[in-house]
Amino acid sequence: MLRHLLFVLNPISGDIDKSSLEDEVALFCSERGREAKFYHTTGEDDLEKLQQHLQHHRYDAVFAAGGDGTVSLVAAALAGTQVPLGILPLGSGNGLSKDLGIPQEQAEALHLLWDHHIRAIDTLRVGTTFCAHLADLGFNALVVERFCSGDTRGPGAYVRIALQEYLNYEPATYRIVTDRETFEGPAFMVTVANANTFGSNVVINPDSQLDDGEFEICLIEPFPGTAALGILYQLYTENFDESVYTKRLRCRRATLEVPGQKEALVQVDGEPLQMTLPVEVTIQPRSLRMLLPRQS
Ligand SMILES: Nc1ncnc2c1ncn2[C@@H]1O[C@H](COP(=O)(O)OP(=O)(O)OP(=O)(O)O)[C@@H](O)[C@H]1O
């Protein structure tokens, strides 16, 4: 039974007021014979601090109470251990929790404490950074960086920035070498996908499995403006492969280069990072135990 629980809480995620959350969760748990402890992220060295905390305290499960960045942080701290990760989705996108079929409603997500299925999923390392969900280079990484450095949140701000950037965007040329094939050419966007769906419900990698020991590199090649709406439609209707401008490389290992460039902007689980090239991507099969609803 999962008795001793830690909730890692991001006070700022999703612009959601969490002032009563601790009391509600603590009461919910104590009424059911569970003990809830809380850990607040600060935005500074959170991974090192959380890892140290977990070395000195024993929990039966740890919940990430925040958005994709918080889930990724807790996942990085738990990967390779036996302690399962639960998610209380409290971000703006909540991509990984949606991909895993985790209820988006608080009481239902907490219900997993006593009625759950534990599934070990693969995780990725992109350069030296842990990745549980999706990473990308190119257009989306640029938009995410602009979004994170701006002061308006929410889907409206993302779309506004995307439209502004799209007009002048110059796709880079990539050289991608996997354990199976090599791709060389320009791309609008290169997504390294363990999972299927962005928090915005864009399905970049349909029908992929989170525990098959493989990941996908999903490429959108440069396209004329007249094709943009069609590609967007395909992304929202799980038809990524239907376009002449899309391509997927399935692999266990990959090296990503941008010839002539020493660094690139890479978005990893929602965080924009400047990375030294080439970027190596590796997979750690079934390295993260997740608390999931029984049917998923
Ligand atoms: N106490 C804090 N103060 C300021 N920033 C914080 C704090 N705790 C965490 N952060 C920052 O919050 C970001 C992660 O936010 P998270 O992804 O959980 O929420 P979100 O961005 O609102 O949701 P989503 O990723 O689902 O869109 C990280 O950049 C992290 O450094």
Automatic annotation (TrEMBL):
Matches recorded under PANTHER family: LIPID KINASE YEGS, SPHINGOSINE KINASE
UniProt KW keywords: ATP-binding, Kinase, Nucleotide-binding, Transferase
Domain DAGKc: 1-130
Protein known as: Diacylglycerol kinase family lipid kinase
Record flagged with keyword Kinase: yes
Pfam families cross-referenced by the UniProt entry: DAGK_cat (PF00781), YegS_C (PF19279)
Highest taxon of source: Bacteria
Gene Ontology MF terms: kinase activity
